[in-house]
Amino acid sequence: MATLSQGPGSRDRMLDLTGGTRWLVTIAALALVAIPAGQASSALTIAPRSDTASVPSTDHLCNAAVRIRKGHTADLSRVADDAVVTISGRDFALDSWQGFTDEDPTVSQYFHSSSWLVPLYDDDSALAVSLLLDQAGASPDPGASAGLQALRSTGWSEYLVTLRLWTGLCLYSRSSDPRLVPVLDALITANLDEMRYYGPPRRPPHNHGVFANEVLRAAGVALGRPELVDRASQRLHEMFERVFEPCGMVREQSSFYQALNIRLWTRNLGADASSADRAVLDRARLALGALIRPDGVLEPIGDGVAGAWTPDELRAVGASAGGSAFCPETGWAAAHVSAASGDRQHHVVRFGPSTRMHGHADHGAPTWWIAESGQDGVPVLVDRGLYDNSADARRRWADSAEAHSVLRLAGEDIVGSTRGEDLGGDHSTAYRLTTSTRRGSATRVLTFDHSSFALGASDSFRVSSGPAARLLQSWHLGPDWVRSDIHTAVTRDGTHTLDVFCQADGSLAPPVLLRVEHFPAYRTAVDALVVRCRAPRDRDTLIETILVVDEPGARARVAQGHLAVETSTRTYGFDAGGRLTVAVAESPR
Fold first, then answer.
1. What tens digit of pLDDT does each residue of 279-322 get?
2. Gap between the Cα atoms of 74 and 162, Å rounded
3. Could you give the CA distance from residue 349 to residue 406 in angstroms, rounded to a whole number?
4. What predicted TM-score, i.e. pTM, was given to this entire model?
5. Which distant-in-sequence residues (6+ apart) come within 8 Å of 166 by Cβ?
6. What one-character-per-residue DSSP string does 529-543 give?
7. Residues 516, 384: Cα–Cα separation, whole Å
8. 3-class DSSP state for residue 303?
9. The dihedral of CA 407, 362, 201, 186: what is its sign?
10. SS3 call for 20
11. Distance of CA 367 to the CA centre of its chain
12. Is the dihedral of CA 30, 33, 34, 37 positive or negative?
């Protein structure tokens, strides 16, 4: 089942893609439009129009060439005399035109893209063209069979080919130097190489494949080669049919890339998109809206830097916060909930197929945002995001289960494919997540209560093989929270109090609050808290956790093997299926 909904209240189902008539909620007017099921699959209409397309402007080609910068700078002062370019403090020799650092791959990408030749052209056009020719001569294509590391080191991996082709087209459009045509031909040949191409039929759809086809189409128009335009259009057609699952989520396992793909495909489909194509993108915008917090923030789940998409940029791709989604193929569940009191909540839960592309070891991880009526909201549970793309300890930690609010075994991640079920409910939202691995099977039930700010988690793990290992839970708090006592955190401004209670195998398990890093923006790190619950045993284990916000006098006990939390107004517990139960006191305690 794949479902989306749009509107206030407790997740009203307004779009059902389970079969029969398929309904589309348009972003612009939120009007229901019936689309016959037979038209729901993509009928992509990216027309080649190679006979009428105008030559791309020089500004367009050159702007595309330099978009890889990602905050990096190029020092060109030593290029002419020493044949050295310095990219963000790292020197690259221009005699061999080779080298790639895994420690900071974006620096190497900027170097091999040669896009820094674009500003150099303004000062010394002859030198810029000469260097592009030198690069082609000194570092020829080793062929796809050389392997990824060799292709990166020489500037011939699929993404670097895309970037270099933009640079070559820019300099050719400005200089009209015929010596650059063979350079462009070699890059076009590499672009067309199926062994390198990041797209069907050898690989699943990916944004790199879209970029490759965009530059191939630009090359075909600029060089007067309509067959390249036709081939790019054909490859885009083959890709678009598989980019999004029926509910609208992209298959790249990242909230950041959900927004990126909507922007890319809106640009590539253009005004000639069919109604079926527009329906696909409208569903994708609804799915993105379900991931956006009410305060306009897109949680950086999977690869992607926090704040990379501002609220204005999200609105520019046609997405705004609202609605809910349950996407079993790609593994996303999200909901905006408004209570009668005016309180609001938002959550995202990750599960799905094994990690690939831009995914992290985050299966079972929730994010959770709350707001009291008339008040600004606060994120309770968050994704840490990425510091940057460097392959260092920070990146490895951010990718790992340790950096997410998940269940894991001490010393190793619980990884694999995770199946998700939406358990429904009138007064709460609940999901059951099941992961089977070589070590055993893990089941997590998450319940978000609608009438209070409470989250319940029931985690069980059954060991089937391998050595015994202690079970751990982590709950990553937003940077607004600071420690109060052993199981309590408060917001820095003192407006909210969070209590966390755990039990493992029938005994209270006092949580531990530890300090970790949070990455709120590119190459920015701040202190934050993680709450950890640990099992006392190291075999088959049940851990139950209840997180409650702004419930005065909360205290915990274990009754008949299950955790119960009593507050002045409510009693929280678990039923036999692992769902959180909430009983309102007849009279306040």
1. 999 999 999 999 999 999 999 999 988 888 999 999 999 999 99
2. 20
3. 10
4. 0.85
5. 61, 64, 65, 113, 115, 215, 218
6. EEEEEE-SSSSSEEE
7. 10
8. coil
9. negative
10. coil
11. 13
12. negative
